[in-house]
Amino acid sequence: MINYQSILQTVPLNWYILVSLALFCIGTVGIIYRRNTIVIIMCIELMLNSVNLLLAAFSAYNGNPDGQIFVFFIMVVAAAEVTVGLALIVVMYRNIKSTNISLFNNLKW
Amino acid sequence: MIRNIFFFLSALALFSAVMTVFSRNLVHSTLYMILCFFAIAGHYLLLNAEFLAIVNIIVYAGAIMVLFLFAIMLLNLNKTKRIRLTRINLFAAVTSGGTLLLVFIAAIKRQAETVNPMMLSTDFGSVKFLGKILFNDYILPFELSSILFLSAMIGSIILIKKEHR
Questions:
Q1: Are residues B137 and B93 in the same domain?
Q2: Mean pLDDT by 10 residues, chain A (109 residues)
Q3: Largest CA distance in chain A
Q4: What Rg do the C-alpha atoms of chain B give, in angstroms?
Q5: What is the pTM of this model?
Q6: Residues in chain A closer than 8 A to B138 (CB atoms)
Q7: How much is the ipTM here?
Q8: Which structural domain range is residue B16 located in?
Q9: How confident is the model over B22-77, as pLDDT tens digits?
Q10: CATH for A4-100?
Q11: Chain A residues closer than 8 Å to B55 by CB
């Protein structure tokens, strides 16, 4: 049986904040760098997951289970978002036979 | 020991996230993403949130990434022409991402004092404990999320359906 109190004592909260912030920034870099729409949606998932990790860490260190419920609802919303996003990608591909986001610039300016 | 597990899981998550962004093959990118989700599930286990770890593996690594793989496979995206990525794009992305990280670190550097964790009960993140909260205090958002799922399903079916003229 692992003692969870000792885990929380040995790992400071700041390290969890640093890890999730680094994950968030990697997701940002991916959204700006990559041109493929599927990879962009995966990077959005990565950013949502980093926020989930941060919420779970805060909830564990604060002793308040409401943060974990919020993580659950964020997962629900992410699943719905991915469903609609992949349907949009399929429609995009059907129209111009490509998923390059740079080709969809009619509404840009 | 615990510290080493934490460092291993963090290094795995960060490495697989970087490989997701920078690998040119779409299927490799998706598989690295699954690895990243497993690392985050390990973090949840370390944080005494076993319900979240199970849900993360089932929903993210099981359902969402399989959906991505199916989309890549059905559209045959791996065979199509690779999109050229310019060096200036990489420069802009790394600069803005690094600046964002720098601002975040500067913001959390101000509060340097360590937080003492509260006393927890052992079944803090168990399914039983969270289920009681979910069905007592958060019953309305729980029911509303089912409507959200229904609308997402209907919306994706309508989007995918071929138009008849």
A1: no
A2: 66 88 94 91 94 92 87 93 92 86 81
A3: 60
A4: 21
A5: 0.90
A6: 69
A7: 0.90
A8: 1-110
A9: 988 889 999 999 999 999 999 999 888 889 999 999 998 888 999 999 988 888 87
A10: 1.10.287.3510
A11: 72, 75
